[in-house]
Specification:
By secondary structure, the protein is an alpha/beta fold. It is about 30% helix and about 20% strand. Strands 4-1-5-9-6-10 form a six-stranded mixed β-sheet, with helices on both faces. The protein has a two-stranded antiparallel sheet with strand order 2-3. It has a two-stranded antiparallel sheet with strand order 7-8. The protein is globular. GO terms for molecular function: N-acylneuraminate cytidylyltransferase activity.
């Protein structure tokens, strides 16, 4: 089985300039994802999709293939995952005749994700033949029933979700334990069948399976404080050894 891991790394990060190759605990950020992908029991190939020559050099240094530079037209802020994934699949087919059986997107901004997490994602797709894709999730730290929007006149807060949706009186004032369970897509491990990308033009498909990841391995680096959190957790992991597989408590299911 050919399992291709694609690590997307644009050069034009706005929130944290050059974040994909910024040092985290002694290594460029992108290195953590490359190394864990290469430790996977199932991943047979790791490719970095980037538009940036410096990022390409760093990725290659840590063991990823960089067979192309991503075109500028699919490397902007509004470029979609489907675009760069389709580009990679088409490039490999046209240049090598290579077609993977399973495709992964491993964002370098999730450096705490482990090879074990990657393997669980792949196994979840393998065990669910009707699933088009798999995503890692964890319980949402902020419940949408307790979120707000600002009124058009800019003076007041209004519930983000109206009562017509929640069927509850003032859920934002009640205990969290009374609210329905809500989960978020971590973005750390996304697994697809190539047909989901090429034929459905989607990264979720019609049937989206899932697996659990703990919050401490799901940190996504978007802002400066995320770097600090990731560094703290990475240092803690180094002192404790590798994390075991995550089994969600009954209360989350």
């Amino acid at each position: 089985m050919n399992v291709l891991a694609i690590i997307p790394a644009r050069g034009g990060s706005k929130s944290i300039p050059r974040k994909n190759i910024r040092e985290l605990c002694g290594k460029p950020l992108i290195a953590w994802s490359i190394e864990e992908a290469k430790k996977s029991k199932y991943v047979t190939r790791v490719i970095c999709s980037t538009d940036d020559r410096e990022i390409a050099e760093v990725a290659a240094q840590y063991g990823a293939e960089v067979p192309f530079l991503r075109p500028a037209e699919i490397s902007g802020d509004l470029a979609t995952d489907v675009e760069f994934l389709t580009h990679t699949l088409n490039f490999l087919k046209e240049s090598e005749g290579y077609e993977p059986d399973v495709l992964l997107r491993l964002a370098p901004t999730s450096p705490l994700r482990t090879a074990e997490d990657i393997d669980v994602g792949i196994e979840t797709l393998m065990k669910n033949p009707e699933a088009d894709a798999v995503r890692a999730i964890h319980e949402s730290p902020k419940h949408p029933y307790k979120m707000w929007r600002i009124s058009e006149d800019g003076k007041y807060l209004q519930p983000f979700l109206p009562k017509e949706f929640t069927n509850m009186d003032e859920p934002y004032n009640g205990p969290r334990q009374l609210l329905p369970k809500v989960h978020v897509h971590t973005g750390a491990v996304d697994v697809y069948r190539p047909s989901t990308i090429l034929e459905l033009k989607s990264t979720s498909g019609r049937r989206l399976a899932f697996f659990w990841m703990p919050e401490e391995r799901s940190v996504n680096i978007d802002h400066e404080i995320d770097f600090q959190i990731a560094e703290t957790l990475m240092n803690r992991r180094s002192g404790e050894g590798r994390s075991p597989r995550y089994t969600p408590p009954e209360s989350l299911i």
